[in-house]
Amino acid sequence: MNFRQRDIVLLDFQLPKQEVEEHPWIIISNNDIHDSEDYFIAVMMSGRKKDDFFSFWIEDEMLTVPPKKKSQIRCNIINLFNKFELKGKAISRIKEMHFDKLINHIFNFTFSTD
């Protein structure tokens, strides 16, 4: 297994009305899934300046390797990927304390009920 929960990996993804682009993604599915299946679930990082309920802003100290530009996690852009879509090794990792906050943010703003 060459990926784990909290890893930040590069993946191609096509947003609506846009070309396919490479984006960093944080793997949010747990390692039990990774150890038994060929897929994982990840949430997309972006350098866009949009600020809304789905924004989870990243500070340099939250990651093992800081991003090249100011970034946020788009908590409403979650996708299932096949492990064969990975482009090499993880480029960074979100620290556990901040990952827990991210998961809470995703749950509260993406999966909460009305």
Present the secondary structure layout.
Elements: E1 7-14, E2 20-27, H1 31-36, E3 39-46, E4 55-58, E5 71-82, E6 92-93, H2 96-110
Antiparallel strand pairs: 1-2, 1-6, 2-3, 3-5, 4-5
Count of structural domains: 1
CATH architectural group: Roll
Specify the CATH class.
Mainly Beta
Radius of gyration from the CA trace? 13 Å
The total strand number stands at: 6
Into which percentage range does the β-strand content fall?
35-45%
List the helices and strands in order. Answer: EEHEEEEH
Task: Enter the CATH topology name.
Answer: SH3 type barrels
User: Which structural category fits the helices and strands?
Assistant: alpha+beta
The rounded distance between the terminal residues' Cα atoms is 38 Å
Q: What coarse outline follows from CA principal-axis ratios?
A: globular
The biggest beta sheet is recorded as: 6 strands, antiparallel
- Sequence stretches where pLDDT stays below 50 over 5 or more residues: none
Average pLDDT confidence is 92
Widest sheet, order of strands = 4-5-3-2-1-6
The DSSP helix count reads 2
The percent of residues in helical segments reads 10-25%
